[in-house]
Design goal:
By secondary structure, the protein is mainly alpha-helical. The chain has two domains: 14-128 and 283-301, no CATH class; 152-266, no CATH class. The protein is built from 14 helices and no strands.
Length: 301
C-alpha cells in the first residue's frame, strides 16, 4: 500500500499485524472464518520470504498459537469498541477530520500493542535463522521490492494517478456501496492534492530491510540483536526524513478530509450500508469464540 493514510499501517513489520486485522476484508469473506485459519495463513505468508526447517516451524506454530490466543482473548473487544465508537460519531453527525483522526489514533495504539506483544516472538524466531535462510530472506526482499516498484512506479504519472484513484474507489465501495459522480469527483480531487511520497516510501522500505538484515547478522549476540530489532519493529519512523514525515502528514490530512466529505455527501442508502458494515464487523469481533489451539491443548496435556 503506497503512502496515503497512516504511516504505521505500512511498516514492513506490520504485515502480520495487518493480516490479523484485515484478512477477512481483503478476502471478502467472514472474519471469523479467516481468523480461525490464521494459524495456517500466517506460516504460509512467512514461507513466501523464508523456508523454515522442521524445528523452526514447530517453534513458529507454538508461539503463533500462544499469540493468537492472547490476541483473541484481549484485543478483539477493544476492536469492537473502536468500531462502535466510530459508528456512534457517524450517527450523531460528528464527522470531521479531527474526529476521524482521533479514531485512527486509537487504532494505531492497538496496533502498537500488537507489535509490542509479538516482539519477543519475532526475536526468538529470527535468532534461529541460519546464514542460508538470511540469504533467502534478502533475495525475497529484492524480489518483492521489484514487484512493488513495477506496481506503483511503472507507467506515466497520469496512469499512476488513475490507478491510485481506482484503488481508493474500490476500497470505498466496500464501505459505501456504489459512489456517485460527486463522490468520485471528491476522490479525484483527493488524488490531485496528495504530495508524491511513493518513491520515498519504497526507498524507506528497502533501507528498513537492510537494517533488519544488519541486525540479523548480530543475532548470536542477544543484547545487540535486541537493540537492533526493537526500534525496527516499534519505531521505524525514527529513520524517516523531515520532508517525508511532512508529506505523510499532509497526505493523511487529505485522506481524512476526503472521508469526512464522502460521509457528508452519502445518501441514506450509503449510510445504511456503512453502518451495517461497521455493525457486522463489531459483532464478529464480540462474538468470536476464543477456542484453545490444539497445539496449546496438547502442550497442557
Amino acid at each position: 500500500m503506497p503512502p496515503g493514510l497512516s504511516a504505521p499501517w505500512r511498516r514492513p513489520a506490520c504485515r502480520i499485524a495487518v493480516l490479523l486485522l484485515s484478512a477477512a476484508l481483503l478476502a471478502g469473506c467472514s472474519f471469523g472464518l479467516v481468523y480461525g485459519q490464521l494459524h495456517r495463513l500466517l506460516p504460509w505468508y512467512i514461507d513466501d520470504y523464508v523456508s523454515l526447517d522442521r524445528d523452526q516451524r514447530t517453534l513458529l506454530d507454538v508461539r503463533l498459537a500462544e499469540r493468537l490466543a492472547w490476541h483473541c482473548r484481549t484485543q478483539l473487544v477493544p476492536y469492537a469498541a473502536l468500531l462502535r465508537g466510530l459508528e456512534g460519531d457517524l450517527r450523531s453527525g460528528a464527522v470531521t477530520p479531527a474526529r476521524l483522526e482521533a479514531h485512527l489514533g486509537q487504532a494505531e495504539i492497538l496496533l502498537r500493542d500488537l507489535l509490542t506483544a509479538i516482539l519477543p516472538d519475532a526475536r526468538l524466531l529470527l535468532a534461529r535463522l541460519d546464514d542460508e535462510q538470511l540469504a533467502e530472506l534478502a533475495e525475497a526482499f529484492r524480489r518483492r521490492n521489484r514487484e512493488l516498484r513495477e506496481e506503483f512506479l511503472a507507467g506515466t504519472p497520469a496512469e499512476r494517478e488513475a490507478e491510485q484513484i481506482a484503488r481508493m474507489e474500490k476500497r470505498l465501495r466496500r464501505w459505501f456501496g456504489r459512489l456517485s459522480e460527486e463522490q468520485r469527483a471528491l476522490v479525484a480531487r483527493w488524488s490531485e492534492a496528495l504530495q508524491p511520497a511513493t518513491a520515498e516510501w519504497l526507498a524507506n522500505r528497502e533501507r528498513w530491510q537492510a537494517r533488519l538484515l544488519a541486525a540479523l547478522a548480530q543475532r548470536r549476540d542477544a543484547a545487540r540483536f535486541e537493540a537492533g530489532l526493537r526500534p525496527l519493529l516499534l519505531e521505524p519512523e525514527a529513520a524517516w526524513s523531515a520532508g517525508y514525515r511532512a508529506r505523510l502528514a499532509h497526505n493523511r490530512e487529505q485522506t481524512l478530509i476526503l472521508l469526512a466529505a464522502l460521509f457528508d455527501t452519502a445518501t441514506p442508502r450509503q449510510r445504511a450500508h456503512l453502518f451495517a458494515e461497521l455493525e457486522a464487523w463489531a459483532r464478529q469481533f464480540e462474538q468470536l469464540a476464543c477456542t484453545p489451539s490444539p497445539l496449546l491443548t496438547a502442550g497442557q496435556g
